């Protein structure tokens, strides 16, 4: 029997191989899409604003503005793709930082998540502004679409910290232990889409604590990213950040040494 086409070293049939490997045209299209997004992001950095014009991007790339419509239907579709990329990158950076710390070191993992959030914003203020700043004039995000899903994936990183502490029996009571009734339904809705399989839902008071923790961390990061803490210098900002992280953990019931 001819066994030349069997075994682990055998080549894939032509039709399987062609399906697995993008064509040259597909690779070229994907590369152009990435170049468009990179050019748009660079222009955001240079111009200090998140509003974009196809004509500016096309000019930078040596293309005509109508040629961009072969890759994106309009400016909003481009912005949507960039927002999704930003949320995914933020989520990846935060998750990588958390997983680099011993799973038993809950305070260390909490600090790593906060520090990664801060570092990402300081490193890329225009992308930070794109997803957390003032709405881009005229831009309407698709309802329950890719931007919402990407935001949920990124924000899940903080909630995962609380779920982990809760499953270990280490999550204490937040200082404000009673959630307003208006938060009960959002807490339930978020649990349905942002709770990993096998994890129990967080009670409303801890949903409120998660939001409070994010608000506190985000407040510091926003003020620092936009230069409002420049008067206290790098060492002062680091010390203040450490205080904010500690205060955030303690007030939300997250385990923290000597709290």
From TrEMBL:
This protein's UniProt keywords: DNA-binding, Transcription, Transcription regulation
Matches recorded under Pfam families: TetR_C_33, TetR_N
UniProt protein name: TetR/AcrR family transcriptional regulator
Coiled coil: none
Residue ranges constituting the HTH tetR-type domain according to the UniProt record: 30-90
PROSITE patterns in the cross-refs: HTH_TETR_2
Superkingdom assignment: Bacteria
InterPro entries, sorted: Homeodomain-like_sf, HTH-type_TetR-like_transc_reg, HTH_TetR, MT1864/Rv1816-like_C, Tet_transcr_reg_TetR-rel_C_sf
Region (Disordered): 1-27
PANTHER family named among the record's database cross-references: HTH-TYPE TRANSCRIPTIONAL REGULATOR RUTR (PTHR30055), HTH-TYPE TRANSCRIPTIONAL REGULATOR RV1816 (PTHR30055:SF243)
Gene3D superfamilies from the UniProt entry: Tetracycline Repressor, domain 2 (1.10.357.10)
Positions of the DNA-binding region: 53-72
Species in which this protein is naturally found: Phytoactinopolyspora halotolerans
GO MF annotations, alphabetized: DNA-binding transcription factor activity; transcription cis-regulatory region binding
């Amino acid at each position: 029997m001819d066994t030349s086409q069997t075994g682990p070293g055998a080549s894939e049939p032509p039709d399987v191989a062609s399906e697995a490997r993008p064509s040259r045209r597909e690779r070229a299209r994907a590369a152009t899409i990435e170049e468009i997004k990179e050019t748009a992001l660079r222009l955001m950095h240079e111009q200090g604003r998140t509003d974009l014009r196809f004509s500016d991007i096309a000019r930078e790339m040596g293309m005509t503005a109508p040629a961009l419509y072969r890759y994106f239907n309009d400016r909003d579709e481009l912005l949507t793709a960039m927002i999704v990329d930003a949320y995914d990158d933020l989520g990846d950076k935060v998750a990588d930082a958390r997983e680099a710390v011993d799973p038993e070191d809950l305070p260390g993992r909490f600090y790593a998540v906060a520090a990664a959030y801060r570092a990402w914003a300081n490193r890329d203020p225009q992308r930070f502004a794109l997803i957390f700043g003032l709405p881009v004039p005229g831009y309407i995000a698709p309802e329950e679409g890719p931007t919402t899903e990407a935001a949920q994936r990124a924000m899940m990183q903080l909630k995962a910290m609380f779920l982990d502490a809760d499953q270990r029996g280490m999550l204490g009571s937040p200082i404000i232990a009673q959630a307003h009734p208006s938060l009960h339904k959002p807490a339930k809705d978020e649990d349905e889409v942002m709770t990993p399989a096998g994890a129990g839902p967080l009670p409303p008071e801890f949903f409120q604590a998660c939001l409070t923790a994010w608000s506190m961390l985000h407040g510091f990061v926003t003020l620092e990213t936009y230069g409002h803490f420049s008067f206290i210098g790098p060492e002062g900002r680091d010390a203040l950040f450490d205080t904010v992280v500690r205060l955030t953990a303690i007030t939300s019931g997250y385990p923290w040494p000597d709290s």
